Amino acid sequence: MMRKPIFYILLGVIFIMGLTGCGAAKYRLSFDGFGFGSEKTSYAEGETVTFTYDMVATDTDYRFFADSGDVKLKQEFDGKHGYVFTFTMPAHDVKISMESRNTMTMDPEAHKPETDTADPGNKEDSMQTETWYCPECGTKNDTKYCAQCGFKKPQ
């Protein structure tokens, strides 16, 4: 007589576990490098994964990628968390990596004094500047470097 209620209780527990994903296979999310963050480290297939990367620097280009081609990262930017990514967990572990490249370039001549052939005593001559157009972007300039793209004035 007691067997029927226990059967229904077990059936209900199994049903609830199936609805909530309990017992479903979980796959591991891992990161190759520092700056990544995620609330969880394992997800069921089809579950939405959200993670962040907060070590964002200016003048740096980033490329984020997964170790498998079936993961399509959706990328956004949030001022509090940096880059925010989402993707749908496939039926395997996923490792996320990042490559960065500093886009700032050094010009060894940037701080060298300009050689001025004008008479140093004549301030009017030394204040005159020559206007030129940048061959890279077409911007009109009157300084040593293009104000738009940073290209050095041709000699």
Number of strands: 10
Instruction: Summarize the amount of helix as a percent range.
Output: 10-25%
Q: Taking strands numbered 1, 2, ... along the chain, how are they ordered across the largest sheet?
A: 3-1-8-5
Q: Uncertain spans, ≥5 residues at pLDDT below 50?
A: none
Radius of gyration: 30 Å
For the largest beta-sheet, the strand count, sense and barrel status come to: 4 strands, mixed
The global form is rod-shaped
First-residue to last-residue Cα separation: 101 Å
Percent of residues in β-strands:
25-35%
Query: Count of helices?
Result: 2
Q: Tell me the series of helices and strands, N- to C-terminal.
A: HEEEEEEEEHEE
The class by helix and strand makeup works out as: alpha+beta
Mean pLDDT metric: 82
List keywords for this structure.
four-stranded mixed sheet; 155 residues; single chain; alpha+beta
What this model shows, in words?
- The protein has 155 residues and is of the alpha+beta class.
- It has 2 helices and 10 strands; from the N terminus they run H-E-E-E-E-E-E-E-E-H-E-E.
- The strands form 3 sheets. Strands 3-1-8-5 form a 4-stranded mixed sheet, with no helix packed on it. Strands 2-4-7-6 form a 4-stranded antiparallel sheet, with no helix packed on it. It has a two-stranded antiparallel ribbon with strand order 9-10.
- The mean pLDDT is 82.
